[in-house]
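Reading a protein record of the kind used here takes only a little practice. To see the layout at work, look at the sequence and tokens printed below.
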Amino acid sequence: MDVKESKLIDMLIEGRKSAFEQLYHSYSNRVFNLSFFLLKDTGWSEDVVQDVFVKLWENRSGLQRDQNLWTYLYVMTKRQALNKLRSVKRSNACFERLWTQISEVEDNLHDTVVAKELKENIKKLLRLLPRQQRTVFSLSRLEGFSHREIAERLNISPNTVKNHIVQAAKYLKNERLYHDLFLLAIFFSL
């Protein structure tokens, strides 16, 4: 170790900022290069340089005059780089969990909006059907009743139920929204 560096360490221990600045200019590039070698990221490496020199200033009273400063900074840089990697790993795991939760909420919200929109379109179309066709079709396709159950409920024959459903389906198919009705039925059956 040269006398100049030993004197700078003494001045640093005393709390002189000028010594700190000189040591920073002497070693910051080496600290950056080492951390970049370990992290492969410029931003993280700059963070490590800052952390290392902040710790150097905070722990200056524990330094020894004849200490090899580069060895001290080297060990601190490696520790800070490894700590950075650990925190990034934890952050990525947290980010992945958060992203999954946000995606699920977003998917559910999207499904709800699409279902509502489809339902509104179907209601508009169903209003155009004659009352009895609308009732039979709604009971069958939207509420899932069987032909026999609808016939009993409305006091009509199962054949009449079938005819109403066929007529309503033809109308809806011609309106090109039968596809949307089919999608809605699939959506609500999931």
